[in-house]
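Hi Y.,

Following your request, here is the sequence exactly as I used it, all 172 residues.
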Amino acid sequence: MSTERTDVQVRRGVEDDLKALTDLYNHYVCETPVTFDTEPFTVEERRPWLLSHPEDGPYRLRVATDADSQEILGYATSSPYRAKPAYGTSVETTVYVAPGAGGRGVGTLLYTSLFEALAGEDLHRAYAGIAQPNEASARLHERFGFRYVGTYREVGRKFGRYWDVAWYEKPL
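Below is the corresponding structure, written out as tokens. Let me know if you'd prefer a different format.
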């Protein structure tokens, strides 16, 4: 398998991606503390999430695929930070890379594409919550101009233990 970035394509997420995206997310639900969801999703349960990330606007879904096989290697999203109207110029961003796809620059390509897509939107800040420990995610976010702003201690319980979440912000 090639390790060059040129073998990865990034595009917007579409309906045909839903099963693969659900499977990828469910890996993180079942195997890691990276997300605080604790039960896997069905494709139908995940459909509203997909539909909440349209082609334009502040809430985007970018998907990385292998250029040859079209296998989904990861995805990045921008989503509402909080539901109240005054938070409307803030987004929460996240990246998920498929198991075995690390080291190919997938996260970097996804965030590059996501932030390029968001450049013309009326947004002021991006936020990212990173379950601890996760040095790779912290490094990725710092490379994109996020700065550490604080940690919520033992904010979530999964796999029989409590997890901290470090918060990062980026001016847009």
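Confidence is low (pLDDT under 50) at residues 1-5.

Thanks again,
Q.
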